[in-house]
Design goal:
Blueprint (H helix, E strand, L loop, with lengths): L1 E6 L2 E10 L2 E6 L2 E11 L2 E6 L2 E10 L2 E6 L2 E8 L1 H9 L7 E4 L4 E6 L6 E2 L4 E7 L2 E6 L4 E6 L6 E2 L4 E5 L1
Antiparallel strand pairs: 1-2, 1-8, 2-3, 3-4, 4-5, 5-6, 6-7, 7-8, 9-16, 10-12, 10-15, 11-14, 12-13, 14-16
Length: 164
Amino acid sequence: MKYTAIINGKPIDIELTRTNGQFNAKIGEATYVLDFEAVEPGTYWVDWKNRSIEISVTPKDDTYVVSMDGLRIDVEIVDSRAALRKTAQHGHTGAVELRAPMPGKVVKVLVEEGAEVELNQGLLVIEAMKMQNELKSPKKGIVRKIGVKETAAVNSGDLLATVE
């Protein structure tokens, strides 16, 4: 998955791929091979070149504070998930398509077509990188289409549901 991190006003391109249980992180022009594990929400363990690093990520307004080895860095992440979160907080008119923010597997569909839903009501759950993510309705309305079934694999950008 590709991201752009903005640190001290400078954009930095980041590309993460997972191969054989390890992450390859391309940050700018440098590439790192990491073992990575979510310890608890907001806390991660990374093993890089036999060095154990604990990373804490805390949301702060529209950015994140990343803490590691005594350093605190304000980071803004610009990716499809961030765009979905931002648009979910604004009113929508007409039909709104909810698309997969990342590749994964549909674990549970929480609503049926024709159901009335509230803003930020859970529509379905996707598992990605051993974490389950509940995707929520971007508006109050009626679910006009569910584009996936439980246990289906999805790619980033696939249509999951339409709410009108």
